[in-house]
Sequence to fold (923 residues):
Amino acid sequence: MLSEGTPAMRLRCSRRARSDSVRSAMTRYVHLFSDPPATQVKELLGGKGAGLAEMTRLGIPVPPGLTITTEACRAAYASGGTWPSTLRAEVLAALLVVEQGLDARFGDTTQPLLLSVRSGARVSMPGMMDTILNVGLNDATVEALAARTNDRRFAFDAYRRFVTMYGGVVLGIDRHLFETELSDLKRSLGNPSMPDPEVPVDALERLVARLKALVLEHAGKPFPSDPHEQLWGAVAAVFESWNSKRAVTYRRMYNYPDDWGTAVSVQSMVFGNMGDDCGTGVAFTRNPSNGERLLYGEYLLNAQGEDVVAGIRTPKAIAAVSSPRGRESESLERALPDVYAQFVAVAARLETHFRDVQDIEFTIQRGKLWLLQTRNGKRTGRAAVRIAIDMVDEGLITTDEAVLRVDPSAAEQLLHPRVPEPERLAKEGIVALASGLPASPGAATGIIVFDADDAVRTAKDGTKVVLVRGETSPEDIHGMKAAQGILTAMGGMTSHAAVVARGMGKCCVAGVSDMHVDVRAGKLIVRAHGGRAERTFVRGDVLTLDGTFGKVYAGEVPVEPAASVPGFDRLMAWVDAARRLRVRANADTPKGARDARAFGAEGIGLCRTEHMFFAADRLSAVRCVVLAGTPEDRNKWLAEIEPMQRQDFVEIFRAMAGLPVTIRLLDWPLHEFMPREPAEMAQIAAALGESVEVVSRRAELLHELNPMLGHRGARLGLTHPDIYAAQARAIIEAACIVVAEGLEVLPEIMIPVVMLAEELTRIEATVRSAAETVFAARGQRVPYLFGTMIELPRACIVADKIAASAEFFSFGTNDLTQTTLGVSRDDAGHFLPDYLGEGLRVLTRDPFASIDRDGVGALVQMACERGRSARPDIKLGICGEHGGDPSSIAFFEEVGLAYVSCSPFRVPIARLAAAQASLRGKK
Ligand code: ADP
Ligand code: MG
Ligand code: MG
Fold:
């Protein structure tokens, strides 16, 4: 792949016949909107091109145009930067067809056609790539445009935008320089805050000349006046933007492959900047924040392109009901009622057609509505749930589809903590500093930083930061990712900050108009509510954001757990009906077990018993067990701990009555239990009735250089069989007690870190005989399973032999990843970020967060097959971190595990991901 936009890598259009000519002869790289490919439409045309083609087919007004396929982009990259030789001719031929329908010609000096050149990947990557509008303008065509439209001001407004965009995107000149020219001009006209539409025509003409001079100065060559040169330059820039830093960052974040490539749509321009019966805007067919069924969007009169999202002017609401009180007349509904009516009809049509919320971009030219884009709208978790349920009730989608509509990571937001409602805080005397738009829900507290790089640097050591900007741009992505929340002074609900934050599930308050951000001085100046008093905050000060209500608080405000979402239970009922995988939780305590059950866990997949040893009331007894000089001594101390453990198990079994509970016997390096303070050591020695020196020496002998690979798990169980025997007794006795209470108990005793079948055979003997002793003593039997955690590569390879004793396997994918990759979880931080990041990019996903399918996954699969071959009814599950990761869950569904187990609060996410994996598998 080519690296990020160095001028040296300009893509070239090959004129020579190339070795790929045979292939080119068959491959079509260009499609008119009106003539899309028969299959793989999104893959070839990108989401935007596919949407434009589909709207064209539906007869919705779309300015005509063509799309260059992603295949052309891929071919260009594959050949090191040379386009397919047929591309130019194909584009020109398609352009001819476009021109015929419009009675204007590209480059013509009397009837000039202007074009937009737009990027579009397979999935929408909002703001990630570059779009160039008004391509085709030069000193001659601008005159023709002025004459034809009888609006010279408009023509030059379009021209100055074009030079700015082209200079920035294609010629790589800092866009800021162009913008400074405009503000200097306004200042020279005596009004620094003059709205763009009021800049007079002669000033615009001077501005264009200035901007072109700027280009000459910085690019070392004149601004290209040949429309065709402009067009190909723009197409190349879009192709190149696929590998821009921000696009790459975005792909990393969402795990999109680098080799999809982008399509390029070349479209005839319509103009929203021709006067007050013109405008441009963006809208959602329903509210993307709360899901309300209400057309939701913003627009600007007399504006072009990205003015709405850029936050340069504050946009107005589309529907009157969504306008701030007293500003209804500014809504599109009131300002241009005819257009509004067209808009409502088109929006409804699109939503019914695509059967999902649409995110629409449009332009109004002289009272006529043109659609420029439609795609499925990104939404918050809360909105996703509501919309899915409403659409089922409206008969638009099935319950299975509803399940697929809620993105697990969006649903996770619902479980996010939040700042208490402003009214409730007010009662406690906590008043917001300022208000803005509730752009993305959630809560964030952190020190403020004004710069994305600073955010990344500061957050590195776990410091919580809030990124504060006037407005964000795609260059800020990495900082937004590192921050807890994002605060902007400008921009609306569809501003870059808002859209990206919602996508990331990150809290964002946008458009706080009482706030002024001076990035250079590193200051945030807030005009406190209602008053004239100003407060200044500098980098490092703490703020709390409430993205749900759009409030900003000084300092830290206590956050509370997520509130319930209406309808969530209904959705989860559909989820549970759709999934095959069971979902358990990892829980070590009775409270954890109760929480897990409340989140819908269907058992405990991993109950670690370490904490049962670490609890304050038993730690010294445990230390005596470890440091005892004789087996008799050890047994004496074990006997002290046993009843406490038994009681823990009793409560966990009660909490999980009727559901399986997998209990892992002790897996802890012994030295972790060692007393660190001399006083503690003296106390243990006294308890054991031995000298401090003797006991200390015993403790020293336990020291390990690499405890991860040391004396732990089954190894401990074999060398200290009394410990496992005592644990087994406690479990079985607890089970007998709870069964005697009339409850159903399904214990599963699990042995960790097994590498040899022989280890397990011997431990099985210990455990079973302990169980039999209990049964005999109580005259009562309970069913239980004996099995193992699979967490070493060797165990996967000899899984058939291990299955001779193991009635179940539970994949401990944390250790299995560690041992398969040979990467220590504790030390990965030294290099894994580089592996994942921009610099090296050798890994696309953190293997500890999302399962490494090719390596660890292959071992899991092998172990499943071998385990089943020896014991067809073997029970298979997973209890590593991966059990809560949606893409890993999809993998576990594929290999046919019986259950996944994850932390209690992730259980709903895992249930959802499991249902989606089932449904996708069926498709
Ligand atoms: P993005 O992917 O960043 O949304 P787009 O290609 O959609 O980029 O372009 C951004 C904006 O440019 C559009 O929302 C629209 O306002 C404007 N635009 C694009 N193409 C045209 C066109 N043919 N006519 C008028 N405006 C256009
Ligand atoms: Mg854009
Ligand atoms: Mg767009």
Notes: The first strand starts at residue 12 and ends at 13. Confidence is low (pLDDT under 50) at residues 1-9, 15-22.
